[in-house]
Amino acid sequence: xxxxxxxxxxxxxxxxxxxxxxxxxxxxxxxxxxxxxxxxxxxxxxxxxxxxxxxxxxxxxxxxxxxxxxxxxxxxxxxxxxxxxxxxxxxxxxxxxxxxxxxxxxxxxxxxxx
Amino acid sequence: xxxxxxxxxxxxxxxxxxxxxxxxxxxxxxxxxxxxxxxxxxxxxxxxxxxxxxxxxxxxxxxxxxxxxxxxxxxxxxxxxxxxxxxxxxxxxxxxxxxxxxxxxxxxxxxx
Lengths: 114, 112
Hints:
Oligomer: heterodimer
Order of helices and strands of chain A: EEEEEEEEEEE
Distance between the termini of chain B: 40 Å
Number of strands of chain B: 11
Radius of gyration of chain A: 13 Å
Strand content of chain A: over 45%
């Protein structure tokens, strides 16, 4: 059982470069999320999706874009990376209702922007 | 937006001791979960507990939704309990239905 898979696990970018983080889940979950974790800040919601073709802004959406073209995939894009985007990024997914609303996380992506 | 506050921010225990972690939230919620982040960074779901009490081994959790708080109890702590404990909540209103907001976490260190 793969669960939630994030790629890549590590990445180093130069300021101004772009990249895409991929999140894939095999649990047929409707909801998917992207969080960033910084020291002393906990996990902050960047963007989320309540189903295929939908996206919505979270707490800290600036500088990021997302797409959910397929139900199982949720992509996070950085068009022009900045040092402030150095962080650990986590993807998560969950089912809707029926008691199956537990959130499942990927293993994280450590991103450094120089 | 909703405020989620966890206390204490840090906790040091001797192995075998018991502890209570608290999560306060500022709005009505219909989803509350507790997570453990181990020293390797992995986030594990401990409980989905929007109300009531649940137990899983040495861990138990209680949420009193009407009073807007949840408690995580750890009994007979072990060194493997070390890490950061987070609670996450979802506001109970239609236009906020998807968001799950995290508290800042409680960092627990269990000494042998």
